[in-house]
Design a protein that fits this description.
Strands 1, 2, 3, 4, 5, 6 and 7 form a seven-stranded mixed sheet that branches. The protein has helices at about 15-30, 40-45, 50-60, 70-75, 95-100, 105-115, 135-145, 170-180; strands at about 5-10, 30-35, 85-90, 120-130, 150, 155, 165. Helix content is about 35%, strand content about 20%.
Length: about 190
């Protein structure tokens, strides 16, 4: 049986990359993973690792497939590639805002736009320090958008970062499966 195609798009929440790569390994067994990175994620070296290390890790996870990093490379993911689902993990507050307002200025936002026009599920696993402040309205808008689903999320450090929330990366697979069935994985708040 042919594997379903799952786009795996990374944004610049660098502190979650290691957690994401570990949590996404079971996805690689179940799906044909198509790697996508925002230009920020693909070009920025941080204390959490270099851009080249992250690209290499993503390519390895995706069976050596070249990473999509430009708008031009991402556009065909909708009409030509026909992904079954697209998972943005991690999704930053910046990308949440862009998705909420229809801004297309990176490979990730272009992949989402191209994918959604096919009426297929977009799954968001966000990680943002302002989920309960500046990003709250964007999360709410996306919760009401057709074919947009979330990996269940909760506060990641309520004492030191009371507005910060992060997806439960252990639920990536379950959230994608639910989205492919047209439903939001519950409970949404963990």
């Amino acid at each position: 049986m042919e594997k379903k195609k799952l786009g795996l798009a990374l944004c610049g929440s660098y502190c979650t990359f290691e957690k994401l790569f570990a949590a996404a390994k079971p996805l690689a067994e179940r799906y044909e993973l198509i790697p996508i990175m925002s230009d920020t994620a693909a070009e920025t070296d941080t204390r959490f690792g270099t851009a080249s290390e992250h690209i290499r890790a993503l390519m390895e996870l995706c069976g050596g497939r070249r990473v999509v990093t430009t708008i031009a490379e991402a556009e065909p993911l909708g009409p030509a590639m026909g992904l079954d689902a697209l998972l943005i993990a991690p999704c930053t507050g910046n990308t949440l805002a862009k998705l909420s307002h229809g801004v297309t200025d990176s490979a990730v936002t272009m992949a989402a736009k191209a994918h959604l026009r096919n009426g297929r599920p977009l799954v968001i696993a966000f990680s943002t320090n302002d989920a309960l402040s500046g990003s709250a309205e964007n999360i709410a808008r996306l919760l009401n958008r057709k074919n947009v689903f979330f990996v269940p999320f909760g506060q990641d450090d309520p004492q030191r970062k009371p507005c910060s929330m992060q997806a439960d990366f252990s639920l990536l697979g379950a959230a994608v499966e639910a989205a492919l069935e047209g439903r939001q994985l519950q409970p949404l708040l963990v």
